[in-house]
Amino acid sequence: MADAQYILPNDIGVFSLDCREAFRLLSPTERLYAHHLSRAAWYGGLAVLLQTSPEAPYIYALLSRLFRAQDPDQLRQHALSEGLTEEEYQAFLVYAAGVYSNMGNYKSFGDTKFVPNLPKEKLERVILGSEAAQQHPEEVRSLWQTCRELMFSLEPRLRHLGLGKEGITTYFSGDCTMEDAKLAQDFLDSQNLSAYNTRLFKGVPQDGKPCYEVRLASVLGMEPALHSEMTSKLKSYEFQGSHFQVTRGDYAPILQKVVEHLEKAKAYAANSQQEQMLAQYIESFTQGSIEAHKKGSRFWIQDKGPIVESYIGFIESYRDPFGSRGEFEGFVAMVNKAMSAKFECLVASAEQLLKELPWPPTFEKDKFLTPDFTSLDVLTFSGSGIPAGINIPNYDDLRQTDGFKNVSLGNVLAVAYATQREKLTFLEEEDKDLFIRWKGPSFDVQVGLHELLGHGSGKLFVQDEKGAFNFDQETVINPETGEQIQSWYRSGETWDSKFSTIASSYEECRAESVGLYLCLNPQVLEIFGFEGADAEDVIYVNWLNMVRAGLLALEFYTPEASSWRQAHMQARFVILRVLLEAGEGLVTVTPTTGADGRPDARVRLDRNKIRPVGKPALERFLRKLQVLKSTGDVAGGRALYEGYAAVTDASPECFLTLRDTVLLRKESRKLIVQPNTRLEGSEVQLLEYEASAAGLIRSFSERFPEDGPELEEVLTQLATADARFWKSPSEALSGQA
């Protein structure tokens, strides 16, 4: 059997996303709007399979064929008759649920591959003897032959997502290196093209020069389109001794489905902002234009306090090894009015709270653009995973000039709160009951501060294409050096493109640090209804949760490559290091032996030293983070951040050794079962499923009732068309010509 870190355990937590009451309160028109947006999101989410690994689309298609022909209970009888044990069949269900939940065979949180926890030969018997194989023998056998080796392979390079020798990714062809990614980013910057909706493929050299295809995601291919700013971009370029060809049409059949449902949603929009927003999204996905998506995002920002909230596109860049390309995601959610009222109070206090952050006013935006901040109950969240909160859009220029929105996903947080005492690792016994009681409320506070005042704060110093600066070069002083500003962002440069591989983690660390720093403010805690001893407990558990998370983060560090696989967890480890460095016994991490005789550890936080020791340390660190970000000082930012992110076995903590303990006692991330909506006549019905691996599989089996087989055919055709980009002697897609 595989190493435990590469399987999903049979007892993995599975929870259903509860949005029944919020959906019940929607009007018929709002339900139709939510339904079509959900359909668009689910269709678009299929693109993530093509953004993850070469084999992911085939695995998805194979599983979908199996469970369409026989539901999990029916297939169970067949599996047992083929000699599988109950445990082995459950392991297969958990694997399938994991593929659906992560939209691929790599964990969305940590980018680690997971494989079926049963013998390949037994799974083959189940698949080839299934009802699906009886109905379509050639198709099922072909799918199995194509993906079976890669489904189980734990060859070192295939264990994690990464670039070049560090891992596998389908954002880049298999022969691309970090140097190729940097060259491509420089090329994109030179043409004012965003990387968000692109993939990069390295071709056969011409005239001794490297050749690259930059492929944009769009419905349209290379045919000319009237009145599109994209048409002039679709051509060949010479850049720094290399050939670049800009093309489009990536994921075209999938994005066509997205566009069809966005068109239908327009008929049920509540206002002109929503109509114009959807029109621009349609333009973006049709043409391959990020500029159109930005325009749509402007209308989205202006659409204040909608009953049905949504966002869709190529959004988060966490899983691009270079940190610039966006994974497709789409969400649809309904407002939770009670919690939203608290967030509105936080927004009202935001300008005052921003003044408390430890950097000069000149490093803050010229004008705080009051954002929407709502608590939402998620109906649909497509992509590779569901976050607890979001601050979007991610476009730097829009955030500086138009603002942003914050959302806290209430029913997702409710799943995150669910903690069993016996599964609470690395805490002192006397902390566990307090932790369970206050984890949820403290997380509400942290998410609110993280999204609104973490991601929502700070200014980037920019020189535009005309040479004008958005700051006074004469008077603005760097508080770290006492000198005038020496560096800034040039026209076309963004935070992601400039800081690339550390951008996501660095920014998450800054936002988490702001949350810890500002949760010490009594005014903030009063907004959330906490005073006196309760307020102190919320602070203590919030800080304790963060330092424990810093230890748990070691699961996501790869010693062989000296690299981190998850931005948020790297950020939390960095904060742990900062607080340990503060000294005076504020935080200690001590190796111990557990009651079971195996290695264990304990995290301790001295609550009496949070303010006198922890706050000043965090203040110094936060100021450095912001100054380096504002000035675009990549060298300084990397030196600071990578220094804290280094994992060594230096005493007293011995983090590399502790990593083994963390892996020994890790708990797998929960799987979340989402509902479906179905249009019956003119009414939209909500379809809910049980909280189990089988329930999650059923939700996907019923997700595409009209065109499931067609979609699977599309996915495998798209994957096969590009399979050559990942073929090598050691990693051929077996069964493909």
From TrEMBL:
<keyword id="KW-0645">Protease</keyword>
<keyword id="KW-0963">Cytoplasm</keyword>
<keyword id="KW-0378">Hydrolase</keyword>
<dbReference type="GO" id="GO:0006508">
    <property type="term" value="P:proteolysis"/>
</dbReference>
<dbReference type="GO" id="GO:0008239">
    <property type="term" value="F:dipeptidyl-peptidase activity"/>
</dbReference>
<dbReference type="InterPro" id="IPR005317">
    <property type="entry name" value="Dipeptidyl-peptase3"/>
</dbReference>
<dbReference type="GO" id="GO:0005737">
    <property type="term" value="C:cytoplasm"/>
</dbReference>
<comment type="similarity">
    <text>Belongs to the peptidase M49 family.</text>
</comment>
<feature type="active site">
    <location>
        <position position="451"/>
    </location>
</feature>
<dbReference type="GO" id="GO:0004177">
    <property type="term" value="F:aminopeptidase activity"/>
</dbReference>
<feature type="binding site">
    <location>
        <position position="455"/>
    </location>
    <ligand>
        <name>Zn(2+)</name>
    </ligand>
</feature>
<keyword id="KW-0482">Metalloprotease</keyword>
<feature type="binding site">
    <location>
        <position position="508"/>
    </location>
    <ligand>
        <name>Zn(2+)</name>
    </ligand>
</feature>
<dbReference type="InterPro" id="IPR039461">
    <property type="entry name" value="Peptidase_M49"/>
</dbReference>
<keyword id="KW-0007">Acetylation</keyword>
<keyword id="KW-0031">Aminopeptidase</keyword>
<dbReference type="GO" id="GO:0008235">
    <property type="term" value="F:metalloexopeptidase activity"/>
</dbReference>
<dbReference type="Pfam" id="PF03571">
    <property type="entry name" value="Peptidase_M49"/>
</dbReference>
<keyword id="KW-0862">Zinc</keyword>
<protein>
    <recommendedName>
        <fullName>Dipeptidyl peptidase 3</fullName>
        <ecNumber>3.4.14.4</ecNumber>
    </recommendedName>
</protein>
<dbReference type="GO" id="GO:0008270">
    <property type="term" value="F:zinc ion binding"/>
</dbReference>
<feature type="binding site">
    <location>
        <position position="450"/>
    </location>
    <ligand>
        <name>Zn(2+)</name>
    </ligand>
</feature>
<keyword id="KW-0479">Metal-binding</keyword>
